[in-house]
């Protein structure tokens, strides 16, 4: 959920244009310093459209989270020709990369600030529940395929998927809330060790 | 970092009394709805003392995080007579319990809201960097002891510790930002599986 190509899908669509402006404003200002005016500043169409569609900053951001998830789910998993291990490692690289470019790092920090609203805001909590479900399901599908194909050891795919999701969410929050690198490289290296012994046949 | 006995250590001390009031206000109101007045409402001594010591809500909360860490570090690890596995599992039960009582759950949610300030606030970020360091060091010490005692397999204690910390932080953030149970039981079960194969000799 880190690349921006999703916004190209329907650039002429008003909602997509608002979402693009929201992405840009979040990346530039973060959540705490975000105002609906700053989103409007990034919006090329009539600003009244934006005020017409949303009650305020949080209403808009919750729809932004919904939009991100829709596009994540719509993107076909085009990698079914790849073996399960390559798919799993590719997915981990997309959702918990060791190195992030500046824009992705800024956006990632803003997403964790949004997640920080979820403890006291049910609308945010609903969105992050769904974001987590979507990623967990994708992990579970790959693990299940690997077991069915006989390349992964027997395991409970749901439980492994929840654990992988937990490590990804740990990596994401640590990365943007610590002065050091958040331990991402060490955590990913140990995660690979776990996968090698827990899942991959013919390893260890 | 979940029990409240720490506040009893120096109850007559002004700072400890302010910290106790902050804990109570955070547990009752969370971060988003917290005001310095609400902390003052929980404070039995002169409210002017509180305003005298702190510039505002965030200044006070950053000192609260510092106070929490000082007490966590001061609490002697009185369990050196226990075997490393028991110590490790005991520590995980304290920092990432499957079930939380209502007060601890409310406090945990507030702590994650505070962590959500760290992406845009350097003072919070410094505190969470130190909180993570303290927990990582405690994990690393136990893992190192287990290896030295010959009861754990060879492993890089620092890397294992960072991975354990990452799963703990994943559990903590998921628990309070999802409508379901945050997958805590499943993640902990798979974490136990990891520990059994990765560390514990004579398992699997």
UniProtKB/TrEMBL annotation, chains A, B:
Where is the HTH tetR-type domain positioned along the sequence?
12-72
| Start-end of DNA-binding region | 35-54
KW Transcription regulation (keyword) present: yes
Q: Name one Pfam family in it.
A: TetR_C_6
Please provide the record's keywords in A-Z order: DNA-binding, Repressor, Transcription, Transcription regulation
Q: What name does this protein carry?
A: TetR/AcrR family transcriptional regulator
Q: Which GO terms describe its molecular function?
A: DNA binding
Q: Which InterPro entries match?
A: BetI_C, Homeodomain-like_sf, HTH-type_TetR-like_transc_reg, HTH_TetR, Tet_transcr_reg_TetR-rel_C_sf
């Amino acid at each position: 959920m880190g690349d921006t190509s999703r916004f190209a899908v329907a650039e002429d669509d008003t909602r997509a244009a608002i979402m693009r402006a929201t992405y840009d404003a979040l990346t530039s200002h973060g959540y705490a310093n975000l105002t609906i005016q700053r989103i409007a500043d990034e919006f090329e169409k009539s600003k009244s459209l934006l005020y017409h569609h949303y009650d305020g900053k949080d209403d808009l951001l919750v729809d932004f989270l919904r939009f991100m998830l829709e596009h994540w789910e719509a993107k076909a998993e085009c990698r079914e020709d790849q073996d399960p291990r390559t798919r799993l490692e590719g997915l981990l690289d997309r959702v918990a990369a060791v190195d992030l470019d500046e824009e992705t790092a800024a956006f990632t920090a803003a997403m964790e600030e949004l997640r920080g609203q979820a403890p006291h805001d049910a609308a945010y909590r609903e969105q992050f529940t769904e974001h987590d479900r979507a990623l967990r399901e994708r992990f579970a599908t790959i693990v299940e395929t690997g077991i069915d194909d006989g390349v992964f050891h027997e395991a409970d795919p749901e439980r492994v998927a929840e654990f992988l999701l937990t490590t990804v969410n740990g990596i994401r929050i640590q990365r943007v809330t610590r002065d050091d690198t958040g331990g991402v490289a060490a955590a990913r290296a140990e995660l690979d060790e776990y996968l090698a012994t827990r899942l991959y046949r013919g390893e260890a």
